[in-house]
Amino acid sequence: MPEGLKTLTRYTIEEEHRHPGSSGEFSGLVNVVATATKIIANQVTRGAIVGSRRKLDTIANDIMVSETQWTGHLSALLSEQMSGAQPVPDAHRRGKYLLAYDPLDGSSNIDVNLPVGTIFSVLRAPAGSGAEPSDADFLQPGTRQVCAGFTLYGPATMLVLTTGSGVDGFTLDREIGAFVLTHPRMRIPEETTGFAINAANERFWERPVRRYVHECLDGIDGPRGRDFNMRWVASLVADTFHILTRGGVYLYPYDTRPPQRAGQVALLYGANPIAFIVEQAGGWATTGGDRVREVVPTEVHQRVPLIFGSRNEVQRIEHYHSEPEEGPRFDSSLFGTRSLFRPAGRANPV
């Protein structure tokens, strides 16, 4: 390891020392989660050997459970692969934290060798109830998170982490088998000239989103007066890391396609941890109408729209949602010019 680099273990211990009276449980939990993601990273790099995407999803989930539930730090776990909260077995001591996670975000990219990752959120378990942990324990708004992070399994394995005092990025040094601090105090520029959205869904977008995207695509000749770049990886962790390092906006907005549902991104183990990280890096995260971290969950697998990134751009999109009837009219007729890449028509406005 190059001289001067700090391991995640040292980093978490030093953070504990800044809080007199800390028990060490929290730093222990962070390091256990990091160990689980290192094991998952090894399985992901062997993806073609291990098997299908579904199998890798299951393997990643099993790794996270087996590496964390015995440590005494957790009361219960929740993941995309579980139907509901999974209490830590009675055979193990139960701790004061809850872990919600997506074991393999972007797993549809496995077959084409694009980046995937693990997203996680740590909450405090309700104190003093004495009851068996349940789904209700996880139904806390994102403002109550004590830690959030994600691991990106790409050319390098990266761990991005916040405990509420900024955002730090770590790279897995495979020679020593440890995460080392390589991206301290990550910050998202307030302004950007890039955005990420799945343009194929344009016909389902609400007017504020179409307004924003069309203004960006009008470029230097449009109302924004500058050119924008558009991208889409279909991997939340990959787009988040791109925004953390280069700025930008990510949009997975509400759309009108059937079946009707409020959004596409899991609130507890997707939108909330990403929003926590983004806000701690100086950005902003919204559903379009509400701050993501203030949404009160009603069920553990609740999904929401998610728009986040450079603060000024996200707040512009929020403003457009506050005046949904403003802006240009868009043609939604079957043969209308509704493409992102051609001027919108005037007939049959929506």
Task: Outline the structure in words.
The chain is an alpha+beta fold and 350 residues long. The chain has nine helices and 15 strands. The chain has an eight-stranded mixed β-sheet, with helices on both faces. Helix 1 runs antiparallel to helix 2 and helix 6 crosses helix 9 (311-322). The longest helix has 21 residues, at 25-45. 45% of the residues are buried. InterPro entries: FBPase_C_dom, FBPase_class-1, FBPase_N, FBPtase.
Give keywords.
30% helix; 8-stranded mixed β-sheet; alpha+beta; 350 residues; FBPase_C_dom; disordered C terminus; 5-stranded mixed β-sheet
Structural class: alpha+beta
Main sheet specs: 8 strands, mixed
What is the count of DSSP helices, taking H or I runs of 4+ residues? 9
Strand content: 15-25%
Quaternary structure of the protein = single chain
Q: From the alpha-carbon coordinates, what is the Rg to the nearest angstrom?
A: 21 Å
Organism: Nocardia goodfellowii
Main location: cytoplasm
Family: Belongs to the FBPase class 1 family.
Enzyme class: hydrolase
In brief:
With 350 residues, the chain is of the alpha+beta class. The chain has helices spanning 8-17, 25-45, 47-50, 53-68, 135-138, 207-218, 236-246, 267-280, 311-322, and strands at residues 74-79, 86-87, 97-105, 116-124, 147-153, 157-162, 167-173, 178-183, 194-196, 229-231, 249-252, 265-266, 284-286, 303-304, 306-309. Its main location: cytoplasm.
What topology does this entry show?
Layout: H1 8-17, H2 25-45, H3 47-50, H4 53-68, E1 74-79, E2 86-87, E3 97-105, E4 116-124, H5 135-138, E5 147-153, E6 157-162, E7 167-173, E8 178-183, E9 194-196, H6 207-218, E10 229-231, H7 236-246, E11 249-252, E12 265-266, H8 267-280, E13 284-286, E14 303-304, E15 306-309, H9 311-322
Parallel strand pairs: 1-3, 9-10, 9-11
Antiparallel strand pairs: 1-2, 3-4, 4-5, 5-6, 6-7, 7-8, 11-15, 12-14, 13-15
Helix pairs in contact: 1-2, 2-4, 6-9
